[in-house]
Amino acid sequence: MKYLTNDMVEELFEKYNTPSNVIEHCKAVRDVAVAIGKELNTHGYDLDIGLINGAAYAHDFIRVMPKHDVTGASLLMEYGFVREAAIVLVHMRYPQFSPMDKINETDIVCLADRLVKDDQYVGLDERIDYVIAKINDPAKTPGILRSKNNAQKFIDGVEKICKKSIKEIVNV
C-alpha cells in the first residue's frame, strides 16, 4: 500500500509554499489523529495509522488557496494518493461521524482537526468557538453548532470505548 509519508508531505509544503503556522497546525492535527487511532486500535479496531498520518499531516497543505479542501484533494489525486485525497476533500465539512462499530480513518482525521486550534490541542469547545468567531456569520452558526454536537457525540463514544478522555489519549 502506497502511503503519503511525512517526507512527502514536507515536500508538498515546500512546493506549495505552505506557511510555517499552517505546517505547525498540520503537525498537531497529525499527532492528535495518530494518538486517537492508535488508542482505538488497542481496543479492537483496525485503523490504518499510515493513512491517518498522511492525510492528517497533508490536510491543509494548500490552505492559502481558495477551496483548499477541493484543491488539495485534487492535487493528491494527481499524485496517486486517492485515499488521502478522499479524506482531505471532506475534512472541513464532514457531514456525519460513523457509528462506533464502523469508525474509520476519515472520522479520526476530521475529529482531530476539530480539536486543534493553530498548533495546539484545545478541545472541541474552544475550537468551535474560534471557528464561529472567525467566520462571523450568524446564519452559519446553527450549522456549525450541529456539527459540534455531532462531533461531541462521537467523542463521547470514543471516550467510552477507550475508557479515557480524548485529552488523556493525546497526552495534553
Structure description:
By secondary structure, the protein is mainly alpha-helical. It contains 9 helices and 2 strands. It has helices at 6-15, 20-41, 49-58, 68-78, 82-90, 105-113, 124-135, 141-162, 166-169; strands at 116-117, 120-121. It has a two-stranded antiparallel ribbon. Strand 1 (116-117) and strand 2 form a beta hairpin. Helix 7 packs antiparallel against helix 8. The model has no long low-confidence stretch (mean pLDDT 96).
Adjacency order of strands in the biggest sheet: 1-2
Total helices: the number is 9
Strand content: under 5%
Number of strands: 2
Pairing-aware structural class of the strands and helices? mainly alpha
What portion of residues is helical?
55-70%
Silhouette: globular
Largest sheet: 2 strands, antiparallel
Low-confidence stretches: none
Distance between the termini: 32 Å
SSE succession: HHHHHHEEHHH
Radius of gyration equals: 15 Å
* Rounded mean pLDDT score: 96
How is the secondary structure organized here?
Layout (H helix, E strand, L loop, with lengths): L5 H10 L4 H22 L7 H10 L9 H11 L3 H9 L14 H9 L2 E2 L2 E2 L2 H12 L5 H22 L3 H4 L3
Helix pairs in contact: 1-3, 2-3, 2-6, 3-5, 3-6, 4-5, 7-8
What are the defining features of this structure?
63% helix; single chain; 9 helices; mainly alpha; 172 residues; globular; two-stranded antiparallel sheet
What's the quick description here?
With 172 residues, this protein is an all-alpha fold. 63% of the residues lie in helices and 2% in strands.
